Amino acid sequence: MADRKYDVVLYGASGFTGTYVLEAAAKSDFFNLKFAVAGRDKNKLEKVLHEVSDLVGKDLSKVPVIIADSKNEKQLAEMAKSTRVVINVVGPYRLYGEAVVKAAVENGASHVDISGEPAWLELMQMKYGDLAKQNHVYVVGASGWDSIPCDLGTNFVKQNFKGTLCYAETFAQVKSGEAGYSFNAGTYQTLILGLSEMKNDNLGAVRRAIMPEKIERP
């Protein structure tokens, strides 16, 4: 992938979560990579670049803008072909996510998302895991705040605990900002869809397909 135009494309940059990801990226060394934003609406993308520029005190007006709609396979494929990694923050993923994963894996780009939807995450693993391996790319799901502490904590224990670990408990503390506690409409929609479709998700069958043999407890 040495000839890719971008290192990272942030898909859904003008949304609630995308704005935060863009702000965090702009404040970090991560932004020294070849970075682009993508979404359906050019005006909204340019607006969020302007807003985040004011927040971080850095000119983002030259950041490339890519137009890609989750319902347009051609646009998604072109986006995926242009980058090494797609960071996808457009949810609910059960409605809009698979097309982006498919485009990324088929066109040689790794895919990172913040989904907290087990049925969708494991279905993507079942459907695209083998192709991702063949194309030497990664599909990294559940990279949101509720999963990262567990992943990092488990890795820390693995590196530093010398005994035999039977189980681990994790604790997270949430601190509210000036606006208090709230969550956005996309998160609410994800929750409602997850509850309403729980009986139809066939999560047990998907899990058995991914891992036919159970891992024995130590």
Please write out the topology.
Blueprint: E1 6-11, H1 16-27, E2 35-39, H2 42-56, E3 65-67, H3 73-81, E4 83-88, H4 93-96, H5 98-106, E5 110-113, H6 118-134, E6 139-140, H7 148-160, H8 185-196, H9 203-210
Parallel strand pairs: 1-2, 1-4, 2-3, 4-5, 5-6
Q: What features would you describe in this structure?
A:
This protein is an alpha/beta fold and 218 residues long. Helix content is 45%, strand content 12%. The chain has a single domain (1-218), classed as Rossmann fold (3-Layer(aba) Sandwich). Helix 2 links the parallel strand 2 (35-39) and strand 3. The radius of gyration is 19 Å and the shape is globular. Belongs to the saccharopine dehydrogenase family. This is Saccharopine dehydrogenase NADP binding domain-containing protein. Pfam families: Sacchrp_dh_NADP (PF03435). Residues 8-140 form the Saccharopine dehydrogenase NADP binding domain.
